[in-house]
């Protein structure tokens, strides 16, 4: 009994010490309403200041745009609050049309968004374009493998590895060819009217997602098709007012019609040359792109050693185009980073930048979410997703200390079943405390998005809450450039180009005002702290 009593006393002493650390009014203090409200205002003001981007100072012209933007946002937020019909709380695939009708979305579409830094190459372009364009090319064959996965391949003469059928011949058998195209679309997209029924859990949606990549890879890895696909994809981002992208790829070797395979170096050269051709054709709309070599993580150590060797060769051959290294695939089922630490440390020794997917999971205390820690210790420049970061306070503190941003992909995390209501996404907590993030679309072509605007809309409405305004969006654009893999001089050139585009956008405020359908004469919400006002347009920081 004495032992138990002693243990209870010790616990009570510890609890008393914890309570003593809490600040209370002194004995005899009278707490009146005025004091209470003053303290409340102070807390709210500090929280407002902490929101990502709130230290941005808007010019008078930007304040006009902000008024338009916030009038539209306030109307949507109020409607969602009253009706519970709030778009970010619903699966993206069921509300695409409603988002496109949103006044907030229309403004974001016109806004220069800087860069998209987390993308996968075979999910860049709209599935509708792939079906309507590439599947109408001659010499394209299709078949189903033993696992019922749809395969595509361009041939002069099909091999005997599968029961290949000419796509044009199969299409001609349909009375209505659009029915065949709809079937192809269903294999080249995750879009569905009822995602909850079709994708009831993470493993199910990931299994179907892998089928998407199986279907599209050999379709777009035909060298002429890849050139057309990448060129069109960059056009979709340029149309969405994105100036620069960094895209990941597993780097399957491109092939010719006669079956010849290009080497990895030859394939990357095609990536680079196609990108440069698009930049040359669109010098005012697009700045450039870089490639991150990102092979699958579900392999053994010997294979990762081969990855590292190839990465070193690519970096030497393409120092200005190949940005760095990553490992991709479903983290819950793939190998953790710690399994490959000996091989991956070689990249740090070779001064090769890494951008690891880490913490793309709902679990806590498992190897998957511990990837966050390993990504940081392996000197990641950015962390892909970082969904589990808020469960690792030491890792979060280290990331902030090292200024390592999370690449947040809201729609991807929702479609792939990590979160249903984006208001509950952990990035909302990161935004509230001003933690560095960049927003990116991950695989927009797989779920009916295009460019970056859809994800920016979701982040603005769900992560920023009612109080995040134009400063938040502006900070995201600036972050996307500051946290790119570009060297200082090239980064400055990109920032300068973005500033020019931003100021042009701000100058369109009267047009936005005339086209907006929301009531812009209403007084500002008294609960929203107004930003400081400057009369100068934004200028990039000088690089010393």
UniProtKB/TrEMBL annotation:
Residues 31-108 form the Adenosine/AMP deaminase N-terminal domain. Keywords: Hydrolase, Metal-binding, Secreted, Signal. It is an enzyme of class 3 (hydrolase). The keyword Hydrolase applies. It catalyses: adenosine + H2O + H(+) = inosine + NH4(+). Coiled coil: none annotated. GO terms for biological process: adenosine catabolic process; inosine biosynthetic process. Residues 205-493 form the Adenosine deaminase domain. Its cofactor is Zn(2+). Its EC number is 3.5.4.4. GO terms for molecular function: adenosine deaminase activity; metal ion binding. The keyword Secreted applies. Its main location: secreted. One of its GO terms (cellular component) is extracellular space. It is found in: Secreted. NCBIfam families: adm_rel (TIGR01431). Belongs to the metallo-dependent hydrolases superfamily. Adenosine and AMP deaminases family. ADGF subfamily. This is Adenosine deaminase. It comes from Scylla olivacea (Orange mud crab).
């Amino acid at each position: 009994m004495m032992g138990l009593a002693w243990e209870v006393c010790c616990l009570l002493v510890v609890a008393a010490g914890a309570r003593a650390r809490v600040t209370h009014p002194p004995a005899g203090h009278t707490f009146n309403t005025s004091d209470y409200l003053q303290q409340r205002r102070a807390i709210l003001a500090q929280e407002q200041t902490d929101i990502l981007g709130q230290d941005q100072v808007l010019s008078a012209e930007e304040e006009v745009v902000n008024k338009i933007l916030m009038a539209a946002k306030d109307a949507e937020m109020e409607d969602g609050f009253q009706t519970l019909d709030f778009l970010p709380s619903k699966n993206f695939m069921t509300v695409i049309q409603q988002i496109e009708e949103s006044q907030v979305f229309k403004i974001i579409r016109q806004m220069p968004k800087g860069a998209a830094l987390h993308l996968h190459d075979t999910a860049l372009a709209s599935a509708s374009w792939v079906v309507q364009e590439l599947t109408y090319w001659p010499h394209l064959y299709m078949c189903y493998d033993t696992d019922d996965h749809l395969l595509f391949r361009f041939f002069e003469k099909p091999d005997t590895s599968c029961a290949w059928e000419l796509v044009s011949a199969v299409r001609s058998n349909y009375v209505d060819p659009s029915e065949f195209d709809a079937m192809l679309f269903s294999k080249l997209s995750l879009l569905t009217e009822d995602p909850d029924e079709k994708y009831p859990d993470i493993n199910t949606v990931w299994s179907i997602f892998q089928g998407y990549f199986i279907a599209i890879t050999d379709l777009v890895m035909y060298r002429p098709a890849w050139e057309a696909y990448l060129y069109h994809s960059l056009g979709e981002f340029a149309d969405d007012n994105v100036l620069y992208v960094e895209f990941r790829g597993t780097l399957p070797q491109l092939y010719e019609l006669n079956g010849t395979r290009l080497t990895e170096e030859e394939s990357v050269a095609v990536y680079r040359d196609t990108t440069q051709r698009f930049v040359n054709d669109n010098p005012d709309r697009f700045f450039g792109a870089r490639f991150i070599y990102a092979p699958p993580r579900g392999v053994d150590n010997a294979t990762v050693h081969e990855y590292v060797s190839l990465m070193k060769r690519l970096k030497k051959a393409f120092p200005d185009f190949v940005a760095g290294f990553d490992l991709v695939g479903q983290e819950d089922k793939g190998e953790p980073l710690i399994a490959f630490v000996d091989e991956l440390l070689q990249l740090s020794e070779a001064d090769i930048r890494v951008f690891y997917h880490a913490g793309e999971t709902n679990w806590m205390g498992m190897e998957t979410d511990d990837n966050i820690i390993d990504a940081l210790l392996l000197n990641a420049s950015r962390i892909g997703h970082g969904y589990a970061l808020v469960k690792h306070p030491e890792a979060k503190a280290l990331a902030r200390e090292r200024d390592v941003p999370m690449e947040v992909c809201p729609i991807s995390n929702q479609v792939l079943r990590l979160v249903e209501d984006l208001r509950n996404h952990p990035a909302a907590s990161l935004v509230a405390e001003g933690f560095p993030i960049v927003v990116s679309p991950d695989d927009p072509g797989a779920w009916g998005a295009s460019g970056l605007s859809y994800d920016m809309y979701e982040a603005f409405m769900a992560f920023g809450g009612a109080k995040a305004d134009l400063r938040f969006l502006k900070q995201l654009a600036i972050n996307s450039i500051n946290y790119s893999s570009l060297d200082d001089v090239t980064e400055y050139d990109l920032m300068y180009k973005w500033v020019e585009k931003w100021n042009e956008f701000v100058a369109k405020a009267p047009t936005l005002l005339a086209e907006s359908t929301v009531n812009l004469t209403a007084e500002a919400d008294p609960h929203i702290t107004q930003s400081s006002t400057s009369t100068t347009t934004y200028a990039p920081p000088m690089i010393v």
